[in-house]
Design brief:
The complex is a heterodimer of chains A (113) and B (113). By secondary structure, chain A is mainly beta. Chain A is built from no helices and 12 strands. In chain B, strands 2, 4, 5, 6, 9, 10 and 11 form a 7-stranded mixed beta sheet that branches. Classes of the chains: A mainly beta (113), B mainly beta (113).
């Protein structure tokens, strides 16, 4: 069935390190893809999104490119900060069909000073 | 900035008891959702609600679950007879239109003993 698979965590990095969190999806049709972030004690917040192939979503130094050929939407940041410590969720939504979000399991990122 | 709020933040109940989880969506939003996350597992869609009726529900959302928008501001999830496996974090979300960003609340942690 339709699903989202993301890299198992936890991920621990030092400040200013490069971050990649892998995400792949399966879906019928043409999904929109999202990265949500959950900071400690808070709800899920939309970090970035892409609605069609080759689109790049970006926000707060994070980027992800919608790759239809590899069904991937990997999250990257060139230089992480301590304040980026959070749980990151990849998700997809089918346009024109159900508006429900289908999430990956989440990846916990800890950035040490 | 408008936000989705949820109460209580943590609910502990005995198996077989009824619980009501409460959410106040963003005031001009029309689409409402409940998701849940069992510890260590994916965030899963439960139900979507629009125009005072359920528009979609998952297999998880069986007859023990119900949703209501009793007064035009609150959006509630009721579990009639809780089971141990209902223990999870429950997230409410709202959206201004069907395929727009879903804004999430901070969640209610439900513990069934």
């Amino acid at each position: 069935g339709d699903s989202v698979t993301q890299m198992e965590g936890p991920v621990t990095l030092s400040e200013e390190a490069f971050l990649t969190i892998n995400c792949t999806y399966t879906a019928t049709g043409y999904p929109s893809l999202f990265w949500y972030v959950q900071y400690p004690g808070e709800g899920l917040q939309l970090l970035l999104k892409a609605t069609k192939a080759d689109d790049k979503g970006s926000n707060k130094g994070f980027e992800a490119t919608y790759r239809k050929e590899t069904t991937s939407f990997h999250l990257e940041k060139g230089s992480v900060q301590v304040s980026d410590s959070a749980v990151y969720f990849c998700a997809r939504q089918l346009q024109g069909g159900s508006e429900k979000l289908v999430f990956g399991k989440g990846t916990k990122l800890t950035v040490n000073p | 900035e408008p936000e989705v709020t949820q109460t209580p933040s943590h609910q502990v109940t005995q198996m077989g008891q009824e619980v009501i989880l409460r959410c106040v969506p963003i005031s001009n939003h029309l689409y409402f959702y409940w998701y849940r996350q069992i510890l260590g597992q994916k965030v899963e869609f439960l139900v979507s609600f629009y125009n005072n009726e359920i528009s979609e529900k998952s297999e998880i959302f069986d007859d023990q679950f119900s949703v209501e928008r009793p007064d035009g501001s609150n959006f509630t999830l009721k579990i009639r007879s809780t089971k141990l496996e209902d223990s999870a974090m429950y997230f409410c979300a709202s959206s201004g239109s069907r395929y727009n960003e879903q804004f999430f609340g901070p969640g209610t942690r439900l513990t069934v003993l």
